[in-house]
Structure formats: structure tokens, C-alpha cells
Amino acid sequence: MTEQTSASSAEDVLLSVRGVEVHFPIRSGVLVERQVGAVKAVDGVDLDIPRGATVGLVGESGCGKSTLGRAILRLVEPTAGTVTFDGTDLGSLAGEELRRMRRQLQMVFQDPMASLDPRQNVQSVLSEPLRAHGVGGDHTARVRELLDLVGLPASAANRYPHEFSGGQRQRIGIARAIALEPQLIVADEPVSALDVSIQAQVVNLLEELQDRLGLTYLVIAHDLAVVRHIADVVAVMYLGGLVEQAPSDDLYATPLHPYTKALMSAVPIPDPAVEDTRQRILLQGDLPSPADPPPGCRFHTRCPFRQPTRCDDERPALRTVEGHPQAHRVACHWAEDIEAGRIQPAASAVIEPDPAPDPDPAATT
């Protein structure tokens, strides 16, 4: 990458996260309460979100994805690190300055029923952010416009959340998020609570709104198929930290981190010939407690490629690997050796493909 290209890319970064940590204190004591530890939900994350792009954040439950999304919006206060939005350090803002900045950063929550007030009709739900931020004009007309953008009829404005299906409620949540014309939307599991038939409609709606309104997305999900469909860049998270980040096509074609390899091998392929002949990597054990994360590489307690040196005592940083794009970064000491086949997974962690079945003797007679 040339210096000119690097400068251009830097200028196009809308959100920059550097060294963000979110630690929740563990307190003990009856009369005198004292801190005895901390849950390290997010533990040193660096992430850039380009303007107009969609970044997917994936990982298993409990790895800190949602906490990171909330920390970016300062719905949860970071313990350390910086979040820079369009050149402004969000950590330096307070009071009215922070409230004004929130117009530019909005969130779509996972459970639309829990995030919508059951006592407010849709007109009230969608006009509330307009009133809160002093947006003038005809709020009724604006609500009709928002409903039209998300594919709902104008008559929906007089109805209450319980009168809608799950997919319709999520559309209302999306309409509320775009009401103030933000630049960035953090979508926390936007389709996980919906039926599969409805998921595609909501994902297509998000893409359509991005094209029409110039939105930037951070999509948090655990469904790799959904993320592959919508994301330009995918970041893989494990136990509070990023283990791999790459352009979507490159990550799915050539995953480098052992954890990413295991995740990809678990995704079913709708081709029996391929599905029956591919090798699968089985992760053993449970996710360690974020209150007591293992030293060194966070993944070494479950890694099928674990080595006796470095893995247990040296935490790897995200880095590029020779032969891959600069944007493809991985946090693994042995990524080159694993890719070249010099390091093989433990036999107990590999599920080999089924051998070809014997032909049916009756079919040959």
C-alpha cells in the first residue's frame, strides 16, 4: 500500500477504536464492600470502521461483542482506551456535547419487544428522538416517511408494539435508529430473534437503507452466514479480544486463526459432495471465565494447534501474514506454520470425512 493510499484510507475511517477495555468489578463484603476482581468483558480491542462500510463482529456467546458495541456508544463506560468518531474523541465529551453527538450514533437492539415501550404507540416511539433532540418540522409527516422507508404502512403509526410481528417490530426499531439521520448504526444481533424467513427481509432492508442513506454499520452477530452476506469486513472476537480481522471474502476463503478455522468448519455447506468430504475441527471445553482469563493466548486452552512455547505465556498481537492482504490481520504466533501445514491439529480435535460407502450390490445386478 502506498503512502497516498494509506492516507486516503485513514481519512475514510469513520470510527477508530484503540485499546478499549471494559472491566466490570467483582465486589465482596457485607459491611465493607471491596473489589476482589473484575470481569474482563472487553480486554484491549483495536478496530477501524471505514465510512460507508459494514463491519461484522462475530464470536460465540459471552465473548464481549455486545459489550464492545455498547462501549462504542458509551452506553457502557470503557475502563480504558479511546473511541474516536469522525475525528472526535467520544471519551472527552460529557453533558450536552455528548447528547448532541448521539444523533450521529444509534443502535438497533437484539430484542425489539424489549426495546420498545409497550405503552407508546409507533407515532410516539418514532417521534420521541425528534422531540428529545429538538428537531423541528412536521413530526407526523416524518414518522410516515420513516415507516415508508422500512416498508410499513402509514396506518402502523397508531398501533402498539404488541400488535406487530417480530419482523415488523424490528423494522420499527430500525426506523427509530435512522430517525435522526445518523452516520453510524450499531446493530446488535438484529436478526437473531427472528424466524429464518424474516431474517433475509431485515438484512435486505439494512442493505437498502445503507445505499439510500449512506449509513455505516457495525453488525454484531453469531450467525456466520448472515455476516458473510452483509459485511465488507469481518472481525472475529474471542474472550474479550479480536483474534482475526479481514475482508469478508478473504476471511471465509482463507481463515488463518485456529478459532476462525473451527468456526468456519462448523458452517454447513449446501453441497453434499463437499460437506461429506471436508475435515471438521472440534473445539473441546468451554469458554474460560472472563473473570479469570488464561495467560498468554486467550485461546490456547482450547486450541487444537497449541504449541509448548509462546502460546501459554505470550499474548499475540494482531499482525499481517505474508502472502495475504494488509487488511487481513491475525493474532496467532504460528499462523504461517499452520497455513503451510507444518503444524497439524491434535487428532482428538479433528473429525475426518466419512469414507466412501461401498456400492450397493443390488444396484449392480
Automatic annotation (TrEMBL):
Annotated protein name in UniProt: Dipeptide/oligopeptide/nickel ABC transporter ATP-binding protein
Boundaries of every ABC transporter domain copy: 26-264
Family note: Belongs to the ABC transporter superfamily.
Family annotation (PROSITE patterns): ABC_TRANSPORTER_1 (PS00211), ABC_TRANSPORTER_2 (PS50893)
SMART domains named in the record: AAA
Keywords: ATP-binding, Nucleotide-binding, Transport
InterPro entries: AAA+_ATPase (IPR003593), ABC_transp_ATP-bind (IPR050319), ABC_transporter-like_ATP-bd (IPR003439), ABC_transporter-like_CS (IPR017871), Oligopep_ABC_C (IPR013563), P-loop_NTPase (IPR027417)
ATP-binding in keyword set: yes
PANTHER family from the UniProt entry: D,D-DIPEPTIDE TRANSPORT ATP-BINDING PROTEIN DDPF-RELATED (PTHR43776:SF7), TRANSPORT ATP-BINDING PROTEIN (PTHR43776)
One function term, GO molecular function aspect: ATP binding
GO biological process: peptide transport; transmembrane transport
Any Pfam family: oligo_HPY
UniProt source species: Jiangella anatolica
Source domain of life: Bacteria
